[in-house]
Amino acid sequence: MAVRDGRVGRHAGLSLLVLVCAAFLAHRHWPVLEAGAGRLTHADRGWLLVAAVATLATWGCSALAQQGAVPEPLPAGRLVTVQFAAASANHLLPSGLGAGAVNLRFLTRCGLPLARSATALAVKACAGTVVRAGLIGGLALSCPGALRLPRLTPGAWTVAAWAAGAVTVAVAAALLAGPLRRAVRRVILDVRAVHEIPARAAALWGGSFAFAALHTTVVVAVAQAIGLPQSPARVALAYLAASSAAVLLPTPGGLGSLDAALVMALTLAGSPADAAASTVIGYRLLTVWLPLIPGLVALGLLIRRRVL
Fold first, then answer.
1. Which residue did the predictor score with more confidence, 266 or 29?
2. Beta partners for 289?
3. Taking Cα atoms as reference points, which of 95, 94, 121, 93 lies closest to residue 106?
4. Over 50: is that where the pLDDT of 110 sits?
5. DSSP string of 165-227?
6. Which of 124, 89, 16, 78 is nearest to 288 (CA)?
7. Contact 243, 57 (CB under 8 A)
């Protein structure tokens, strides 16, 4: 318990540091953010409606993917409500801990052992990672030159290369460790069990694909609403690349890290800074701030009714 508390404390400290840096950058570039917010007030209402509908559908797709990660049937209505509540909890704790804790509790309440519940979350996460990698690869091939890396000095590239090597060595060492190797083996066994049931496999991969595609649709629709001078494919590629990179920084719900990465990706692709900021503000408003309080209320009701 003490080790876990220490890890949570370190994650929280790193999250606080990233958020402080994000607040500093927001203060420094406040005129750009203000112009972006003003541009959003004159956005096309039809495209914003498309973005709102896509946002609502993301929770159903998340529930579909979670059902596909376990062979046993789960109560559909409660499962969707749990995903809605988990999304709000995810914005309070770093690195997906909030959503993971809510889903883990729900699965154990449904009768799954703790170990199998944890591997079910891992199966869903692995499927989501594979889907995102496939989407990024496909869009990168269809939009050559869309992903532009920022210009760095040779020294910065050297530091980045050493950091990547250190991460690779650390991951390899962790995979060779006994406990993690056993955990990976359990995940592989659960993946095989799920794929022996075609309906579950279809739910896992279909839900994972739809979840990523719908979040991408929200960003693209907001970009279209404000008249961002980029093709939908380039905006989609920028979002998928930025959200994948933001996972490396364990901020609550990617706040700060995803925002900065997405603005950078859009501006590197040739978008004006205020339009990029407006796109990010609109995406965050629909997917984070508007559902946050209702999601927390739903979380409280689920706990009170012992669903969690």
1. 266
2. none
3. 121
4. yes
5. HHHHHHHHHHHHSHHHHHHHHHHHHHHHHHHTSHHHHHHHHHHHHHHHHHHHHHHHHHHHHHT
6. 89
7. no
Closest CA to 74 of 125, 122, 111, 115: 111
**CB neighbours (10 Å) of residue 85?**
29
CA end-to-end span of the chain, whole Å?
A: 21
How many angstroms separate the CA atoms of 46 and 224, rounded?
10
Residue-wise pLDDT tens digits, 37-51: 566 777 888 999 999
The stretches of the chain forming alpha helices (DSSP H) are: 2-28, 30-40, 45-68, 76-89, 97-109, 114-142, 154-176, 178-195, 198-226, 232-246, 257-268, 273-284, 290-304
What is the residue whose two structure tokens read 């839900």?
207
**Other C-beta atoms within 10 Å of 302: how many?**
21
Q: Which of 211, 58, 231 is nearest to 124 (CA)?
A: 211
Q: State the amino acid at position 262 in one-letter form.
A: L
Euclidean distance between CA atoms 227 and 78, whole angstroms: 38
Which residue type sits at 206? G
Give me the residues paired with residue 94 across strands: 252
Number of Cβ within a 10 Å radius of residue 92: 14
- Buried b / exposed e over 265-284, threshold 16 CB at 10 Å, is bbbbbebbbbbbbbbbbbbb
For residues 182 and 175, give the distance between their C-alpha atoms in angstroms, rounded to a whole number.
9
Q: What pTM was computed for the model?
A: 0.79
- The residues that bridge with 252 in the sheet, in sequence order, are 94
* CA–CA gap between residue 76 and residue 214 (Å, rounded): 20
In tens, the pLDDT along 152-198 reads 566 655 665 666 666 566 555 555 555 666 666 777 777 788 888 89
Single-letter residue type at 176: L
Phi, psi of 41 (to 5 degrees): -65, -20
